[in-house]
Task: inverse folding
């Protein structure tokens, strides 16, 4: 597939040649097309050659990518074929690139297979954050399940009764003998201590 710029100033002699091929895949049981090589020709001479990586789609589909470039910041789907040729001097970038080499109907692209991988950085970050949240939730549930009531460990304990000590001299005034069935008993007259029988 050759793209000629025609009579456009300095680009008059520039041609972009895309070398495509089809192959049958046993795994997916269908034919696929692939872009193998991109050549830049100027005045009928090859100026640069780039090998294409990862540009393929089913033969009944088209291929779409936001950037197809030789620059690393765009994932470098175009790689110079040799370190010795002039490809190192060229920087090629296609923006909103879409191609369909075969089975084109009525001049329109078929459904596009996008170059964005399933595990893009944004998707990976979302998966990592989801995993962290699930771990926190599992830890919280684990703590709730194993939480024990405080009543099992701490019984309600009352402090022992406290009675003020009295001297023997005071006891004589405060005590009054009680007549009972043969036992010696005394009753405290001071009501603030209550009644105690001995």
Result:
């Amino acid at each position: 597939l050759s793209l000629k710029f025609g009579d456009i100033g300095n680009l008059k002699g520039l041609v972009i040649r895309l070398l495509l091929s089809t192959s049958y895949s046993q795994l997916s049981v269908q034919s696929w097309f692939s872009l193998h090589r991109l050549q830049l020709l100027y005045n009928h001479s090859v100026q640069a050659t780039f090998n294409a990586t990862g540009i393929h789609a089913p033969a009944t589909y088209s291929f779409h990518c936001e950037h197809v470039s030789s620059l690393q910041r765009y994932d470098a789907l175009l790689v110079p074929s040799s370190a010795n040729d002039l490809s190192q001097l060229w920087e090629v970038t296609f923006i909103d690139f879409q191609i369909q080499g075969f089975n084109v109907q009525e001049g329109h692209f078929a459904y596009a297979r996008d170059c964005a991988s399933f595990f893009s950085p944004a998707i990976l970050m979302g998966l990592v954050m989801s995993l962290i949240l699930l771990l926190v939730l599992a830890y919280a549930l684990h703590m709730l399940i194993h939480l024990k009531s405080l009543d099992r460990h701490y019984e309600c304990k009352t402090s022992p009764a406290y009675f003020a000590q009295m001297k023997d001299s005071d006891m004589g005034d405060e005590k009054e003998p009680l007549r009972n069935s043969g036992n010696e008993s005394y009753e405290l007259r001071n009501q603030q201590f209550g009644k105690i029988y001995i």
The chain has two domains: 2-116, 118-155. The CA atoms of residues 141 and 183 lie 66 Å apart. DSSP finds two helices and eleven strands in the chain. The longest strand covers residues 30-42.
